[in-house]
Amino acid sequence: MDNMYDVIIIGGGPAGLSAALYSARAKMTTLVIEKEKEGGQITNTQEVANYPGSIENATGNSLSNRMVEQCKEFGVKIQRDNVVEAKLDGDIKEIVGEQQTYKAKSVIIATGASPRLLNCPGEKDFTGRGVSYCATCDADFFTDLEILVIGGGDSAVEEAIHLTKFGRKVTIVHRRDELRAAKSIQDKAFNNPKINFIWDSAVEEIKGEGFVQSIKLKNLKTGEVTEYKADENDGTFGIFVFVGYLPETQLFKGVVNMDESNYIITDENMKTNIEGVFAAGDCRVKSLRQVVTAVGDGAIAATQAEKYIENKFN
């Protein structure tokens, strides 16, 4: 059958590539469909310091490139295509791309999630050069510097508290005059002497030469725009954006079960509510979204797909 595989993996980030490696090593015909560049969000990371074994100043690009080459060595096919429809009912799953249609005995959804952006001038220019969306990944780079946290929900305030272990001063910038985080989390922030607040303000622009040196903030009540500049002795500061994440799961809405934020619900074996369909990585409900957890998800999903195929088709 044309374009027929044992496993089709939708998404070529760490979860998808890990799933592909385990799938191919189990002698299953494996296809990864990726609409953009393999590697996912880590390709935007200058240094991957919290992945076990990354001790040679590994960048996100170098790590993902090694993953891709390893997959290809075991016979994984990587197809550049944009999936527009997933027909997951029945024994044979059908994945419809803009270029062609693919069929498989099992499917692993590894489409990831992306941080919600501020969409202000300078944000993309300074991503990885002062602007970050992951405190766990990048906090250490701002040790003893000033840090601004944009957002006021649970994640923003929790990460601000975490960042006080690194920065000498952390300032939460929020659009409203009160936080949206849970009261218990708010209390910890208000009682932390390192945390300051700028209320009723939104980011207008991020500026600098080579790295972040200032940020323009607009007071949403008065309309006044002020510029927050780096301390002269520091030359820079960190901006951590936590205004939400967007799981790349729109395609599967109404097809697989999701939570209220559109993350795919799985069990501990990465199984969705549909037989033969698994989800791995940032697109699924989980407590920690990191490269190390994504690759673990991918390995489990592929192993479970192998067991499913053996029981179903052999």
From TrEMBL:
> Where does the FAD/NAD(P)-binding domain lie?
5-298
Query: Which cofactor does the UniProt annotation name?
Result: FAD
In terms of InterPro entries, this protein maps to:
FAD/NAD-bd_sf (IPR036188), FAD/NAD-binding_dom (IPR023753), Ferredoxin-NADP_redctase_2 (IPR050097), Pyr_nucl-diS_OxRdtase_2_AS (IPR008255), Thioredox_Rdtase (IPR005982)
Return the PROSITE patterns for the record. PYRIDINE_REDOX_2
Q: How many and how are cofactors bound here?
A: Binds 1 FAD per subunit.
Q: What class of enzyme is it?
A: oxidoreductase
Q: Which UniProt keywords apply?
A: Disulfide bond, FAD, Flavoprotein, NADP, Oxidoreductase, Redox-active center
Please state the Enzyme Commission number of this protein: 1.8.1.9
What Gene3D superfamilies does the database record attribute to this sequence? Answer: FAD/NAD(P)-binding domain (3.50.50.60)
Q: Which reaction does it catalyse?
A: [thioredoxin]-dithiol + NADP(+) = [thioredoxin]-disulfide + NADPH + H(+)
- Give GO terms for biological process: removal of superoxide radicals
Quaternary structure note:
Homodimer.
Q: Which family, according to UniProt?
A: Belongs to the class-II pyridine nucleotide-disulfide oxidoreductase family.
From the Swiss-Prot or TrEMBL record, give the protein name.
Thioredoxin reductase
